[in-house]
Amino acid sequence: MHLKQSPYIFVESLFSLENWHMKFKVKVLGIEAGRKLMVIIDDKDASLLGVRTSDRVKITYKDKSIIAIVNIATRFPRNTIGVFDEVCSKLGIERGDEVEVYPAKSPESLAYIRDKIFGYELNAQEIKAIVKDVVDQNLSDIEIASFLTTLHVRGTNMDEIEALSRAMVETGQILEWEDHPILDKHSIGGVPGDKTTLLVVPIVAAAGFTIPKTSSRAITSAAGTADRVESLCPVNLSLEEIRDVVKKTKACMVWGGALDLAPADDLFIQVEYPLSIDPLLLPSIMSKKKAIGTDYVVIDLPTGRGTKIKTIGEAQHLARNFIELGNRLGIKVECAVTFGEQPIGFAIGPALEAREALQTLMGKGPIDLQDKAINLASMLLEMAGVDSSRDKATEILRTGKAEEKLREIVAAQGGNQYIKPEDIGIGDKVAKVVSNYDGKVLWINNNDIVQIAREAGAPKEKGAGILLKVKIGNEVVKGDVLFEIYAERSQKLESAFALAEKLKPIGIGQRYDIMIMSRIPARAKQERTFILER
Amino acid sequence: MHLKQSPYIFVESLFSLENWHMKFKVKVLGIEAGRKLMVIIDDKDASLLGVRTSDRVKITYKDKSIIAIVNIATRFPRNTIGVFDEVCSKLGIERGDEVEVYPAKSPESLAYIRDKIFGYELNAQEIKAIVKDVVDQNLSDIEIASFLTTLHVRGTNMDEIEALSRAMVETGQILEWEDHPILDKHSIGGVPGDKTTLLVVPIVAAAGFTIPKTSSRAITSAAGTADRVESLCPVNLSLEEIRDVVKKTKACMVWGGALDLAPADDLFIQVEYPLSIDPLLLPSIMSKKKAIGTDYVVIDLPTGRGTKIKTIGEAQHLARNFIELGNRLGIKVECAVTFGEQPIGFAIGPALEAREALQTLMGKGPIDLQDKAINLASMLLEMAGVDSSRDKATEILRTGKAEEKLREIVAAQGGNQYIKPEDIGIGDKVAKVVSNYDGKVLWINNNDIVQIAREAGAPKEKGAGILLKVKIGNEVVKGDVLFEIYAERSQKLESAFALAEKLKPIGIGQRYDIMIMSRIPARAKQERTFILER
User: Per the CB 3.0–4.6 Å rule, which of A158, B113, B143, B281 could disulfide with B139?
Assistant: First the structure.
């Protein structure tokens, strides 16, 4: 079919399909959207331009142009485009400048998201395109929410998980090391008070292996490892500084958040959090391991009531997936299924936990924490070829070599090498919660403990938290202290205390005399917990 | 377990769990978010307050308080809360005022959305809560996107569809009429040039039945019925005005958008559109019918390649669902599966279609349009108990009674009763597209036709559109005009012409000599069509 020029029009210039546009005056909103390129226009202008919320526009000013996501406001000044700071700086525009705005196509990756919604498997290139557009902030929150919901509901097969992991690695910083192997440990989280990393890293490094550990801060918990370590020394180190620390000590314990390792993950978390879904658990964790150059990693899967993983069967299934994904990425993975139905040790909250970890390294710590640390460390040493690895790990801890190594790391990261447990500042507002019964501790509700610690100010206020005085199986008599709440401000202590009164996080009784585990009313308003820690 | 007051704190006042808060200074953003209550705070303040994007906060000023959705900006002024206009007016605050901000719980409906994500069926109360929170703007776009994606992926059973429909009715305006039955027709859309409503409404009203028709404007198409009718008379009438028009003429043809009938739908569409999904087709259509008081409705399901419904099997399945949902809602539904593989009549675009509809009522219209209108009208008349309904409908159209009725309606709605087809203004920029081959018209690509009409300016520019000169099966010789493009502006005509050249929307050949229907390259960038019309 041929399209003949009619006598009615004279088409002399070459024209593009995108030449329909409008001119807008710039209104600077003075808000940074968080890297996403966004603009606001009035709904009537939007309808004239032919765009709707979440559509893309090309904005041209002088010789520069960008693609931005449209937000539509009602009763916004006409012929005016409200721009977030990122758009201003990219285009070099100021208030009152005139820009040209063209409707633009949605990114190709949106079509792939739709494919997944409609049930098609995505290939590696398609997944890469989606992840890249997430990192480049080319996808709107609506689109990312739909993608993550679809991943959750439809599930992902191992090819997709591998592709997601690789894409998350490739869109971020990748660390390279001269010496190998690189060892690592990771917990999928879900159990409060888990300061095991603060012991495992020094044990492994003291055994002569390299373990450059990056950790996250708490998202929904009372303390992340980075929060805990920060009570001992700075954790916000640059890549250069990290290399120096690792060179000196064979280890580090730093915050990974600013290192741009698998940055897609942080952007996904922003949308997963309000939805309380976590469809990217495997790629999220393993992409960070790959980016940091890990060769051997032990993954801790805390299991049981009150954790992410409720049954050993589930844990085994997840473990197989971690191992298979590791194979595909060239990382040797072993998993530890650990008991997670009560906090590890007694302390919950950044400073309280740092104190407990230091005490344990100094020989005066709780047995469960010691046992967990020795087991995880010895698994790693065994993977790296150490014979009698359990004895070795135990010896390193018992003889103070692990403590010495921790102090080296603390010093190298800019902390006080000679820090004593009592130097670690904890909240000076304290409330004790006592038992009103005689009996045994039957259970400790992890989530309630976390909520109370957070109400007290953790993790932001490092000195806030909970110090348990009892664990499951302990005998108590009426009047015994069950736990202490620490806070930095009276107001927060009051809130936490009130919450403790409401939640009653520790169950006391004779064995088997509490048969009802949960009561579900006909018209339930169920309180649900969501643990988003990686 | 009893929580005993410790000597360390003195709890004298009653305190609530929500007493942790911060004070913020108000920064008025001067933007209306579109009813949603939103505020912006800096990420460091957010982390102190313990909230993340999409979390809720309670904002208190003097004796007023509201719950708003938090958006987090980077490098926003500290201790400052950016407020959209809706928040200002609800709280009565101005720039510089100091407000108290408390973390608040997410709405209960979010837990139900999560239930659906996790695979649970929702009951009527839960669905009502979600729809109500959508209408009250208590759910963020992320949450609505996740809900709609889940509905699409998991599907909805008839109980859920019924509950969605009822909830959408109950959260909006409901019309009541003194006279019954109320008749109605609806097309699920997807075929261009479908101006059938402009004929069916006058035929049915001329037969003595009440048919107060509300229509939508185009979303993704070249013209909605409201856009078409607007070329004849005003369509943006108040409820009072509609009652008057219906009283005088037994009918109306108005825009339903401002009547607040099932308002949830418009809010869902804002999120469905960027995602190109349409999980609420049934409740969306039927809730509007219920809200307007419909007793009998014929639903037109245009079927075939290039429409929403590809096969007659699919159409029958959807028809059964419409009929069952109608039963549950107390509406008698019949469905018509109609041929949708090419435009109805020859005209595409608001004014061109209005002109063709008027010509058809005046006895000089295309046979397919006449046939469709007579069939749909006679189905409705039969449902209402009219004998020989087809003869009756045909007679009303042929004798000019339908034309007369249309003119009554046009006059009652404030238009010119004596309007002639040539009075309807169409674009004065015209391009003709001619065939370069001899042969038959084998196919007409609906979507391409729509895209070209939209590129020419439809539906916003009412005079823009396409006038076909051939339909499927017509013989053409080289040089014959296939279609004309009309536009109001040269620039848009040029764009549309270029798009026509690229898309080649009409296939000419000898029967069976074009065997390849579509070519799919290895690395496909597939252009996909999405029809979101209800």
Answer: B143
Catalytic positions of A are 278
Encode pLDDT of A109-147 as tens digits. Answer: 999 999 999 999 999 999 999 999 999 888 988 999 999
Contacts of B273 in chain A (CB under 8 A): 52-54
Q: For the domain A108-155, what is the CATH code?
A: 1.20.970.10
Residue of A nearest to B502 (CA): A3
Residue B433 DSSP symbol: E
Whether A108 sits inside 8 A of B525 (CB atoms) is yes
3-state secondary structure of B102: strand
pLDDT confidence of residue A481: 95
- Nearest chain A residue (CA) to B152: A117
Higher pLDDT pick, A11 / B498: B498
Of A485 and B12, the structure prediction assigns the larger pLDDT to: A485
Which residues from B are below 8 Å from A83, CB to CB? none
Task: Please give the Cα distance from A281 to A144 (Å, whole number).
Answer: 16
Q: What is the average pLDDT across A254-276? A: 91
Contact assignment for A434 to B106 by CB distance below 8 Å:
no
Instruction: Write down the architecture of domain B183-418 according to CATH.
Output: 3-Layer(aba) Sandwich (3.40)
| Domain residue ranges in chain B | 22-104, 108-155, 183-418, 425-509
Judge residue B238's burial from the number of C-beta atoms within 10 Å of its C-beta, 0-12 exposed, 13-18 middle, 19 or more buried: exposed
Residue with tokens 């037994």: B250
Residue burial B482-519, b: 16+ Cβ < 10 Å; e: rest:
bbbbbbbbeebbbbbbbbbeebebbbbeeeeeeeeeee
Closest CA–CA distance from residue A234 to any residue of chain B (Å): 19
Active site residue B227: no
- Are A149 and B153 an interchain contact pair (Cβ–Cβ within 8 Å)? yes
- Cβ contacts of A293 within 8 Å, gap of 6 or more: A174, A175, A176, A177, A182, A212
Which positions in chain A touch B437 (Cβ < 8 Å)? 1
Does the distance separating the beta carbons of A32 and B29 come in below 8 Å?
no
Q: Over chain A, what is the mean pLDDT?
A: 90
Q: What are phi and psi of A427, to 5 degrees?
A: -60, 140
The C-alpha angle B254, B257, B262, rounded to 5 degrees, equals: 115
3-class secondary-structure state, position B214: strand
* B6–A40 CB contact, under 8 Å: no
Contact B483, B467 (CB under 8 A): yes
Inter-chain touch A494–B15, beta carbons under 8 Å: yes
pLDDT tens digits for A363-385?
999 999 999 999 999 999 999 99
What's the average model confidence in pLDDT over B433-444?
Answer: 91
Q: Nearest CA of chain A to the CA of B189: how many Å? A: 20
Could you tell me the end-to-end alpha-carbon distance of chain B, in angstroms, rounded to an integer?
Answer: 58
> In sequence order, which residues have a C-beta less than 8 Å from that of residue A378 and are 6 or more positions away?
A389, A390, A392, A393, A394
A275 contacts in chain B (CB < 8 Å): 113-114, 117, 142-143, 146
pLDDT at A523: 54
Query: Nearest CA of chain B to the CA of A330: how many Å?
Result: 28
Q: Which of B236-240, B248-252, B501-505 has the lowest mean pLDDT?
A: B501-505
C-alpha A396/C-alpha A386 separation (Å) is 13
How high is the ipTM of this complex? 0.85
CA nearest A31 in B: which residue? B76
Q: Give the CATH number of domain B22-104; options: 3.30.300.30, 3.30.465.10, 2.40.40.20, 2.30.110.10.
A: 2.40.40.20
- A106-136 b/e (C-beta count within 10 Å ≥ 16 → b): bbebbbbbbbbbeeeebeeebbbbbbbbbbb
Mean pLDDT of B76-95: 91
Q: Are B250 and B208 in contact (CB under 8 A)?
A: yes
DSSP string covering A494-534: HHHHHHHHHH--EEEESTT---------SS-----------
